[in-house]
Design a protein that fits this description.
mainly alpha, single chain, 2% strand
C-alpha cells in the first residue's frame, strides 16, 4: 500500500459518518464503482481485481440482503487514494441528489436581542436600579462578550420601545 492510500473499509466508515449516510449504501456504491472501473483500487501483490470481481459482485447481492462488508477480511485489502475517493463520492452524491453539506443544528440561532435580555436578567436585579442606564448595560455586554450592541437593542431586550 502506498503512503497516502487508505483502506476502503476506513474510507467507507469515516465518510458514512461524515455525510450521515448508512454505511451499507456507501459500501454498495463503492463496490459497484470498483466493478465498473470508475474507482481504481490499489491491491496488494498477488491479488488482482479480476480475482476479486466475483467476491465483489457477490458482496453487492449480500449488501442488498443486509450483510456488512466491513466484517469480511478481503475488504481490508482494497486501498484507495482518499482524494480520489472523495472526488468520486461527491460526484455520486450530487448524482443521487444527496446534499454534501453537513446538516445545520436544529433550531434557529438566538437573536442579539434575546442574548442581551438573558445577559441583563443574569447580571442585573429586576427591576433595574435607577442608576443603571441602557448605555451602561450595552457597555457591560460588549466588555463581557466582545459584541457591540446599541442602546436601542438593550431597550428592546428589556421590553421597552
Amino acid at each position: 500500500m502506498a503512503g497516502k492510500e487508505t483502506t476502503l473499509r476506513d474510507l467507507v466508515e469515516s465518510r458514512a459518518a461524515e455525510y450521515n449516510l448508512p454505511p451499507r449504501w456507501l459500501w454498495g456504491w463503492a463496490l459497484d464503482a470498483i466493478v465498473r472501473h470508475v474507482l481504481l483500487p490499489n491491491l496488494p501483490e498477488g491479488i488482482s481485481l479480476d480475482s476479486l470481481h466475483g467476491r465483489i459482485v457477490g458482496a453487492l447481492y449480500a449488501i442488498e440482503r443486509g450483510s456488512d462488508p466491513s466484517r469480511w477480511s478481503w475488504t481490508s485489502a482494497i486501498a484507495l487514494s482518499p482524494a480520489a475517493f472523495d472526488r468520486w463520492l461527491k460526484k455520486t452524491l450530487r448524482g443521487r441528489k444527496i446534499t454534501t453539506h453537513p446538516r445545520r443544528a436544529v433550531g434557529a440561532k438566538s437573536t442579539l436581542r434575546e442574548d442581551v435580555a438573558a445577559f441583563a436578567a443574569a447580571n442585573y436585579p429586576s427591576p433595574l436600579p435607577p442608576g443603571i442606564t441602557n448605555e451602561k448595560i450595552a457597555q457591560d455586554y460588549e466588555s463581557k462578550t466582545g459584541t457591540a450592541v446599541s442602546e436601542r437593542t438593550v431597550r428592546r431586550a428589556l421590553g421597552r420601545k
